[in-house]
Amino acid sequence: MLAHKAEEEGVFVAELIANQKPHIDYNLVPGVVYTWPEVAAVGKTEQELKESNVAFKVGQFPIRALGRARASMDIQGLIKIISDASTDEVLGVHMIAPRAADLIMEAVVAMEYRASAEDIARICHPHPTYSEAVKEAALAATESRPLHI
User: Fold this and answer.
1) Which end of the chain is less enclosed by CB atoms within 10 A, N or C?
2) 127 an active-site residue?
3) Widest CA span in the chain
4) Domain at 119, CATH number
5) Active-site choice (23, 94, 127, 148)
């Protein structure tokens, strides 16, 4: 399930042997379950943040509200973005959706560069696509303002 994690660890070892400066942030290794719809996640869960006493906000968007989902009749799932309550930095993204294995990479890139939910919300996403749900969840996490629900 995490062949990509093992590959990164192999690169880490090779770079270490070559006296380079390897880097792995295990918080940014996406987990993917290849069911249909797919399940993918990166970063912290709500439960982990509660246990760490981190204040957070959550934005969710149902896949069924997407035009692309309705057109392809794949309407099951949701995208959830968890961000820091004060800085809006994205702390975790969890999804059950068609193409979640591909969609999770937008979250990984955003989190690698410490983007906020607002940063994701401001990016123009193509229409009609499943990636619009990531933008909508980010809009929901920033003052509850999704466009399509």
Assistant:
1) N
2) yes
3) 52
4) 3.30.390.30
5) 127
The verdict on residue 130 lying in a domain is: yes
- The closest alpha carbon to 91, from 38, 146, 54, belongs to 54
* Residue 64 pLDDT: 96
- For residue 69, give the nearest of 47, 37, 92 by alpha carbon: 37
- The domain containing residue 59 runs over which residues? 31-141
Q: Provide long-range contacts, Cβ within 8 A and 24+ apart, for 138-145.
A: 138/59, 138/81, 139/59, 139/61, 140/58, 140/59, 140/60, 140/61, 140/81, 141/57, 141/58, 141/59, 141/81, 141/82, 141/83, 141/88, 141/117, 142/59, 142/83, 142/88, 142/116, 142/117, 142/118, 144/59
For residue 79, tell me if it sits in a domain: yes
Report the predicted TM-score, pTM, of the whole model to 2 decimal places.
0.92
Best CA proximity match to 142, nearest among 20, 60, 35, 31: 60
| Domain count of the fold of the chain | 1
Tens of pLDDT, residue by residue over 74-89, are: 999 999 999 999 999 9
Contact call for residues 68 and 128 (beta carbons, < 8 A):
yes
